[in-house]
Amino acid sequence: MTTSTITYLALASSLLMISACSPHPGSATWLATADQSSVFTKIAVHYDGKADIYSDNQDDAIRRCFWSAVSSQSINMHCIDATNTEHEEDLQLTVTDRDHAELTQSNTIIARFYQQQH
Length: 118
Hints:
Helices cover 15% and strands 47% of the residues. The protein has one helix at 3-20, and strands at 29-32, 40-45, 50-55, 63-69, 74-81, 88-97, 100-105, 108-115.
């Protein structure tokens, strides 16, 4: 291998490592759009792989979730009901553009959200 090839490979490896550490676009606080009837009004997707789902009339999360990325724009969330820990459900949050996302369950859209700006 030539020195330029080794330098190129080292640079490419460094870029891959840096990009792997960037947060998923789904890790943000999402607020429900006004044009829906879903019970879910806010989703807080934390960088550490946890997420909390809120309802408008609750101060505490109504679902506690663990999430994992399934694509560059989507995350799967395995959630447990905060009041009935035997009730589990799987949801998917897909970022549709920079500031908007859709929450689906079994490939059906159940809510739309926009990203809360800090």
